[in-house]
Amino acid sequence: MKEFKIITFTANPKRYYHDSIEENERLRREGYVKHSAIDMPLGCSRYGGPVFDMPKGLTPPEDLAFVAQLDLKEFSKYDQNNLLPETGQLIFFADMIEEEYKVIYSTVDNSQLERQVQVHDGDFWDGVLIDQIASDVETWDEDDLILDRDEIYAIGDKYEERSGISKIFGVFTNLETSDEEVNQKIENDELVLLQVGESGFNDEGVLTVTIPKEDLIKRNFDRCVFYYG
Questions:
Q1: What InterPro entries does the database record attribute to this sequence (predicted)?
Q2: 211 pairs with which residues across the strands?
Q3: Is pLDDT above 80 for 106?
Q4: Quick one: which of 25, 33, 82, 147 is 20 to 30 A from 5 by CA?
Q5: DSSP 8-state symbol, 43
Q6: Which fold has domain 2-228?
Q7: How many CB atoms neighbour CB 87 within 10 A?
């Protein structure tokens, strides 16, 4: 049994969308609000949506959707591994269809960020602020591997529990990946830089971003890989 020190986070109950999108019955029923109605300080942590904050003078990657923004000053308080930068921002962009990704590490203070607002109707079109952040512990039994995909779906409760958690570090979660592959990622020091689960964030599925441990230590975010399972 292996034990991992992780950072967990939860979703704010209010989801938001770009002001230009016409309100409809579904949005009203599910409690969505326009982005201008959300109190969103510069640099605050969030997932998806039309609003993100970039260092002044830096433009977002072309043809990639905004995925997430993490305020490292807040997250690093709960980093029992002492691996995250203590300040700055991690800003995630992706095209999940074309498998193109970009993670920007900014070292500027939040006050030096510049707000960007971009409407898009594909993946990550709606947004939710990150609410509570906490330290936690996760366990993994590498001696109890599940190698067959049919077995994975047959024991759905185990994976439903994993898919509901949003976190940094810990065990890689993807229904399309066998436990043997997960164990290999652990042995290769491939860290979970970001996992966004179904509880309040995604209607269905889990977004995971991984990074080699050595790269995180060196503050090199060029080899991050995004998964959505």
A1: DUF1963, YwqG-like_sf
A2: 191
A3: yes
A4: 147
A5: T
A6: Hypothetical protein YwqG fold (2.30.320)
A7: 15
Token pair for residue 53?
A: 């904050």
β-pairing, 33-34 vs 127-140, is unpaired
Looking up tokens 């006050």 gives 111
Reported pTM: 0.90
Sequence letter at residue 71: D
Identify the CA nearest to 12 among candidates 209, 204, 199, 203.
199
Tell me if 20 sits within 8 A of 98, measured CB to CB: no
**Token pair belonging to 8:** 């967990």
- Under DSSP, the state recorded for 165 is -
Q: Can you read off the two tokens belonging to residue 91?
A: 């800003």
CA dist 152 and 154 (Å) reads 5
Q: Using an 8 Å Cβ cutoff, are 93 and 67 in contact? A: yes
Rounded-to-integer distance, Cα 38 and Cα 161, Å: 30
Q: Give the closest residue to 36 by CA, choosing from 24, 26, 23, 25.
A: 23
Contact status, residue 172 vs residue 194, Cβ threshold 8 Å: no
Measured distance CA(103)–CA(60) in Å, rounded: 10
Cα first-last separation, the chain: 25
Cβ-Cβ contacts under 8 Å for 224 (sequence gap 6 or more): 101, 103, 193, 209, 210, 211
CA distance 142 to 158: 15
